[in-house]
Specification:
The structure holds 2 protein chains of 2 kinds. Chain A is mainly α. Helices cover about 75% and strands about 5% of the residues of chain A. Chain A is built from 13 helices and 2 strands. Chain A has helices at about 1-10, 10-25, 45-55, 65-90, 95-100, 100-105, 110-125, 130-135, 140-150, 155-185, 190-195, 200-215, 220-260; strands spanning about 30-35, 35-40. Chain A has a two-stranded antiparallel ribbon with strand order 1-2. Chain B is mainly alpha-helical. Chain B is built from 7 helices and no strands. Chain B has helices at about 5-30, 35-40, 45-65, 70-80, 90-110, 115-125, 130-165. Chain B is extended and about 60 Å long. The termini of chain B are far apart. The chains are: A mainly alpha, B mainly alpha. At the A-B interface, α1, α2, α3, α4 and α5 of A face α1, α3, α4, α5 and α6 of B.
């Protein structure tokens, strides 16, 4: 209650957000062609970067309470976006049902997370932090899971928090740039890429969808529909994927990689 | 978190003004003849429909004894109400659904999806500077691992979705 009234009365934050929105929309979407592929920049990405710059302590514009208010306001302003999400899925409902198999099976793609991240994490010298950092995309569901299994003050919890914070800070930007690069290669179908956009994070999904739409405007509607549908699906199954597959697999990969690097079994092993 | 519904209305309206500004800028870019004011006004009915979904979702969370976040209800309500009639069916229910969802989409469709994202990310950006010191503490190793986590999740899903779509002949 207190929070909502305090955030509501913070005129400075609302004013800055309004100015940012207008400036960023006027800048508009830009596609930059590079030798390694195209990169798409669009208003929501400018908004994050400019917002972060405005908030830097050296400028003295935003106090800590201001930033906390702003953080609180994300949760409520995102509701308009969520309501619109539903209306992206509904009109394409039957089309999505038809691609149900691909949409459901791609959820297992989240396991690529551990395969990609754990070996390198061990290689650069992380210990149990590697498991917490590498088993999932580290959104809110994973925080709940790890605090339950290991506690957030454990090495696993620290690893997870690191990825969680990185995701919050530059997840959307990274996803937007990565998605535009991969899309411009033309190897994978645009439908498959749209389905992969749903990661359980609304902002990362939106950045991916935005990038794909900018490169394939003729398929804008179906891209948004698949992205929103797979994001809903991840919201439903993400926790179970992490608990029954992601975490056990990460622990196993950790043991294997540890033996390869250090030649002995990990001493801090847990059952 | 049980939010005061009046505070919610005020905060939504502040965000909605930003969305409408952004939306009208996007609209005028696509239709150079349109005026900013007309473009602002034409999306208002759509925004009001989104308000209804949000309030329905928030009230569902409050009165339905399931451990589901309001977000889940909001998305589901919007989804169900915008499903068109079953393809090929001419029954009265299908007809009604088709007209109903058609009307909703006529108004909601005026609200550009990307215009809804910019104010949210503006608030997000403005709240980020406080998290930078934590990132410094957690170190470069976790930044590297984070990037691999993003890449692995995305590519893993693409590979499977692409393979299944090809195997089932949908692309």
């Amino acid at each position: 209650m207190e929070d909502s009234l305090r955030a509501l009365k913070n005129v400075k934050i609302h004013f800055l957000a309004l100015v940012l929105t207008i400036v960023c929309e006027f800048l508009g979407t830009k596609i930059i062609k590079l030798p390694i592929g195209s990169i798409v920049f669009f208003p929501m990405l400018y908004a994050i970067v400019l917002g972060l710059l405005i908030g830097l302590p050296r400028f003295g514009i935003l106090s800590l309470p201001d930033q906390e208010d702003s953080s609180y306001l994300i949760n409520l302003s995102v509701m308009l976006l969520l309501a619109r999400y539903g209306t992206l899925v509904g009109p394409n409902f039957f089309k999505i049902i038809n691609s149900g198999l691909a949409l459901i099976l791609q959820e297992f793609g989240n396991l690529g997370t551990a395969v990609c991240a754990i070996p390198v994490a061990v290689w650069i010298g992380l210990k149990r932090e590697a498991v917490g950092a590498g088993f999932s995309l580290a959104r809110e569901g994973s925080l709940a899971l790890v605090s339950e299994v290991y506690g957030l003050n454990s090495p696993e919890g620290r690893g997870l928090m690191g990825v969680y914070i990185c995701g919050t800070l530059f997840g959307s930007i990274f996803y937007g740039l990565m998605a535009s690069l991969v899309a411009s290669w033309g190897i994978f179908s645009i439908e498959a890429q749209a389905m992969a956009a749903g990661t359980g994070s609304a902002s990362m999904m939106t950045a991916t969808v935005g990038a794909l739409q900018a490169l394939h405007p003729e398929k804008a509607e179906i891209i948004a529909a698949y992205g929103a549908a797979s994001n809903m699906l991840t919201g439903l199954d993400g926790l179970y994927m992490s608990l029954f597959i992601g975490l056990p697999m990460s622990n196993w990969l950790y043991k294997v990689c540890y033996r390869v690097k250090y030649g002995v079994k990990p001493e801090d092993e847990k059952a | 978190m049980k939010i005061n519904l009046w505070h919610l209305l005020a905060i939504l309206t502040i965000s909605a003004v930003m969305v409408l500004c952004g939306n009208s800028i996007i609209y005028v870019k696509a239709h150079p003849d349109a005026s900013y004011v007309d473009s602002f006004v034409r999306a208002i009915p759509g925004i009001l429909i989104l308000y209804i979904f949000i309030y329905a979702g928030v009230l569902c969370k409050r009165y339905i004894p399931l451990q589901l976040p309001a977000a889940a209800y909001i998305v589901t309500i919007g989804c169900i109400l915008s499903i068109p009639g079953v393809p090929g069916s001419t029954g009265p229910i299908s007809q009604f659904m088709n007209n109903f969802s058609g009307t909703i989409m006529k108004y909601v469709g005026e609200v550009n999806f990307m215009a809804l994202t910019t104010p949210v990310l503006a608030y997000a950006g403005l709240s980020l500077a406080k998290d930078l010191p934590v990132l410094k503490k957690s170190g470069w190793k976790l930044v590297v691992v984070s990037m691999l986590v993003f890449i692995g999740t995305y590519l893993g899903s693409i590979l499977i979705a692409d393979a299944v779509l090809r195997a089932t002949g949908q692309i």
